[in-house]
Design brief:
heterodimer, A: alpha+beta, 4-stranded antiparallel beta sheet, 49% helix, 25% strand, B: mainly alpha, globular, Yip1 domain-containing protein (chain B), membrane (chain B)
Chain lengths: 222, 258
Amino acid sequence: MTKNTTDETESEGGSSDSITDQSGERLPQTSENSAGRTEQLEVDRGRGQERDETTLAYNDSSTEPRYEAMPAIRPVLIVLGSVLGAGLVGIGVIASSPTLFGGPEIAEILVSAIAILVAVIGLRLASKAMVLSRTQYAIYDDTFRREYELFYRSQSREIPVEKLRGHEYSQGRIQSLLGIGSVRLLTAGTNRSLGFIEFEHLDDPERVREEIRAVSTHEEFE
Amino acid sequence: MATGLLRWPVDVLARPKVLVASRADEETDSVAHAIVTSLRISVFYFANLLLYALPLTIAGFGVVNESAAPEGFAAFAEPLVNDPDAAWQLSSALVQNSAFLFVATVLTFVTFHLGVVLTRSSDGIVRSLRTVSYSTGIYLAVMFTVVWYVATAPGIRVADEFLLALQAEFFYFFIDLVGVNLELPGGRPEAVDLGRLTRTGQAMFVVLLLSAVYYLYVLYLGARISHQSTRLEAIIAVFFVTISPAIYVLGVIVTSTL
């Protein structure tokens, strides 16, 4: 069973129509609320320099990441090994007892089909492991980034912190055995071009969640 | 666009999840939007159906040369084509060649959606429509194409006999189960000597088997991704589809004995 922490998403103010203020009370994300926050910021600026300095410290577009990591590929390799092993066992059973499956000709057809299927799945998992080994996750003060470079082809996906509406933590069976988890960062509804970023197979998912909470909280102050 | 065209066969073979998930989160928030989405999915499906049936029709399958066009069709077609009778023959053959795959698609859709509804995991008919259009438009079409090729290729005789025997055995299993006195036109099939199976025939069976596996797997993915079903619910939905040939055969047997 895959364990998903979706309550965490809501408590982080992650639903598409709500955010969590500093007291933990959920507020509707309406234009009124946005206007209210703007007014609050203006009042703070009128009071003095301290808040502006704090705001400025987090408004600086940081070039140094707060957190960087690469995904673990052990879960993918375990699945790959399992698929290869199951395929070999299946082929071995059929090859050793062809009469059970209707004769040697049908057994040969079944063995060929299993071999092709295992090869396709194996190649798919191997390429996924290769991509993951060249992937990097980074959390900055103002963005979340996932990027990889492979065979002279690079891809980078970023989400501004201000667009983050929540995050979802999940942990599959194999991940659970290895103490690994995945975190999916969610953005709000109508602008479908942003979508989400997934930080897969993290060795320290709790640290990532803390960093997400930290940058999200500072964003709310702004 | 070129990259997308090159990526599509890779997705079909190695990443069917990408096909199913590409628009799985698209919401149909109004009846009008649902209708428009359904029409778009249907266009994709019928385009695939045409890709499957058109080569068969052009090759002459289903074409009856002596048939004349009905008056209404002739009146409609005369301004458009030189020979309304030929147009009618081709159109009829196209419909006939599409019929089996279309009926199989309808059966798949009904049983699949019934499965997700009965497991209370349905997120709407449009999502089932999308899943079924991919699974039948691609993988079931491959299966039908293989069966057609095996039945018509001159060098593949044993594979053709074996396929026919399998289908007949399937019918007779249910005839014996129900206990009716029914005979198929060819009678009970005799055992086929598979020792004479050629490499091409074996390869065709491998493709047929793999297409069937992919067809069922895409339906499973459709239930999991589009309907957010659990593994068990998705397996039950696919189970409904796998028993649909049995339901079809039982229906044929019952209507034949009425």
